[in-house]
Amino acid sequence: MGHRVSASRRTAIVELIAATKTGLTVRCELDENTYAKGVKVSDAEMAALNITHDAFHPEWNYTIAPRSKPAPI
């Protein structure tokens, strides 16, 4: 069973993020699916992600963008 966050706590988290003064737009949606714990992601899978890290706390601030599709043959 996964960790459940109360509705009031979720609301507080979203409001805290939305209150930033950086021009950030927040859109969120509750995902109530259950996911397996302990799934390992290989170094090759991580390397295949299109991740751009921010200069400020890159371990927290990053963007994951879709990978470019290969050109049709």
- How many strand units? 2
Helix content: 10-25%
Question: Which descriptor suits the 3D outline?
Answer: extended
Strand order of the largest sheet: 1-2
Question: Structural class, from helix and strand content?
Answer: alpha+beta
Distance between the termini: 46 Å
- State the helix count: 2
The helix/strand order is HHEE
In terms of DSSP E residues, the strand content is 5-15%
Q: Report the biggest beta sheet as strand number plus sense, adding barrel if it closes.
A: 2 strands, antiparallel
Give the radius of gyration.
17 Å
Mean pLDDT: 82
3D architecture notes:
The protein has 73 residues and is α+β, with helices and mostly antiparallel strands. 25% of the residues lie in helices and 11% in strands. It has two helices and two strands, in the order ααββ. A two-stranded antiparallel ribbon has the order 1-2. The longest helix is centred in the N-terminal third of the chain and has 12 residues. The chain starts with 6 loop residues before the first helix and ends in an 8-residue tail after the last strand.
